[in-house]
């Protein structure tokens, strides 16, 4: 990525940003010194660090280490560059259909685009400061060629307090760290299902995004618990990401249900939830990040679904009273892999959690793999999961009640969706002025939930009669009943 430099003073630039190159793996200090003398290069790694890229394996060394004799001069150059120049960090700028200019960087060998900011100066990111609403396009035409927008980069819209709404297209697959941090005016954002990765603190400081049950959300991304003193939180169905530090330090939390829509549990998400005694991680979750349940000192039981592909460093460390861990993954890997591969678990995942005294419950087909793969091999007892325990759970059959003109559904399985049908048992036609209305209605309902089998169908017949309470049973009562039917999928229909 080329970094453009905007001159702000009479000083001539001593160093220029001229792009990035990848030196040979065996390059030494003399090699870099020769390159520097021929064509000075400093690499912009973050807004606060100018570092020299040492190899394609991300071994990074400060430039002053390479040029020991001139390190004071180099540091002065760096400081002057930070003070005297605005840093333009985009490749192209194209207006969207609403006329809003959006800044992009090339990605993937200039075949895709990433949304970025215009420039960085004095610890602020610029480019969208006068924008209240932005719709990111799915594709962009540049030089008569179409390019797909596939990501939103780090700090892209950070600190734009006037921004109120953002629409993200379904071409975007990732949102970078701090992308919308401190967009305090943001009230609405759409995150499509195409997004599979959201960076750290992407929505922190977005204080006007909606709150449900004491939890703040950015669409399907759970940002954090607002009041961290509660003993119970209900994560809404449809949530896909539990963000970094979402429930960090909620000591009163004793239990929580993670919906089967969740795919990722962020770093430190439940760290220091010292009252939490058990946790069930559904099959939908693929990634449990580092320190997710660190210092959950009352945690005795953990159930991990068969979809998990990565368990990070110290994810369940310092959980000192663990007695039982259930893991349904049927394949393990001893090396880090792609999300589609077998489960990889960092060796420190259960550090200082006394697993030598705990029991590990695993599929029969994989028990030897667990016994020979760290950290699982450190468990004291191994037990095979029964076929019943390996089955996909099924939603409980809902119940129906009708009282005081309220039709109510309930289910022993939490956070389900209800699907129902209401019909009249018979409506007879006749001659003259008389219409015979049979005041009996048949109600059927079943429950669904991601990761669960559908429930059995429950049926109830209700004689409603004078539904609108006008003293007469006639066609007007049908209108009232229709109103009940139209109200839809809520558990209580009035």
> According to CATH, what is the class of the largest domain?
Alpha Beta
Q: How far apart are the first and last residues' alpha carbons, in Å?
A: 59 Å
Stretches with pLDDT under 50, minimum 5 residues: 1-69, 485-494
Largest sheet: 9 strands, mixed
Structural class: mainly beta
Structure description:
There is one protein chain. This protein has six helices and 37 strands. It is globular, with a radius of gyration of 29 Å. Residues 1-69 and 485-494 have low confidence and may be disordered. Strands 18-19-20-21-22-24-26-29-28 form a nine-stranded mixed β-sheet, with no helix packed on it. It is mainly beta and 494 residues long.
Q: Key terms for this structure?
A:
nine-stranded mixed beta sheet, Leucine-rich repeat, LRR (right-handed beta-alpha superhelix), 494 residues, disordered N terminus, globular, 6 helices, mainly beta, single chain
Summarize the structure.
The chain is mainly beta and 494 residues long. It has 4 domains: 4-88, no CATH class; 91-209, Ribonuclease Inhibitor (Leucine-rich repeat, LRR (right-handed beta-alpha superhelix)); 227-391, Leucine-rich repeat, LRR (right-handed beta-alpha superhelix), CATH 3.80.10; 399-493, Immunoglobulin-like, CATH 2.60.40.
